[in-house]
Amino acid sequence: MEGSNMESSKGKGWIMKQTWDDLLFLHWPVDAAWLQSLLPSELEVDTFDGLAWIGIVPFEMNRIRFRGFPAVPFASRLLELNVRTYVRYGDKQGVYFFSLDASYMPGVFIARKAFHLPYFKADMVKRKKSQQVDFSSSRTHKGVREATYHIKYQPTSEPYEAKKGDLDFWLTERDRLFIVRNGSVLQGKIHHDKWPLQHAKTDVLLDTLSDHYGYKEDQVITHFSESVTTYLWPFEKVTK
Hints:
Elements lengths: L3 H5 L7 E15 L1 H5 L7 E2 L6 E15 L11 E12 L2 E11 L2 H11 L3 E11 L2 E8 L8 E8 L11 H6 L3 E6 L2 E9 L4 E11 L13 E12 L3 E2 L3
Parallel strand pairs: 5-6
Antiparallel strand pairs: 1-3, 1-12, 2-4, 3-4, 4-5, 6-7, 7-8, 8-11, 9-10, 10-12, 10-13, 11-12
InterPro entries: ADC_dom_sf, DUF2071
Organism: Guptibacillus hwajinpoensis
Pfam families: DUF2071
């Protein structure tokens, strides 16, 4: 069900709607104590069976619009590539972003100023042939370290829903993200239907993005999702 009925069913307060297409989750395990050293002290690393995880996530963002406004054709699509991990604040679990590269400079500017997220401008290209996605990104943002990433990926199974308690559910089904600003913890809630996940195969052709994050090629877990519509709420202060 699309349109206003579907949107109203998500509840009050959401401010932005997006559709994420051809998304890849590429995760690898890391030592929890080491990862904690990379996080703001206000947040605690989240673990599954004692292991922490870092993910690289490339995707295409479509039909972007703020609530009450139509999508603007030239500003309603962009490519994004993020590096993320999983954290706790009190009893709340969420996502923490190390970086978010994006292809549209005005969107990067808005996200940095309005949401205080570590967005960076990048030259990005996505090509899709049959089921294979060819995705490349080269960071061009001034004043930050360069990072290049080129990957090919495609699904290798039928879609399925991850089961609560399983690792793939833990890695993908998160309903909030955290930022820390001036010592205060803020959360932004996210809503989407359950991911229609598929197993995936990948070929990383060039990677200077994961250099600082303990990348372990032989321990990578991958999931593909063709499309999911997402609703985002404004950040709110949750510091105790």
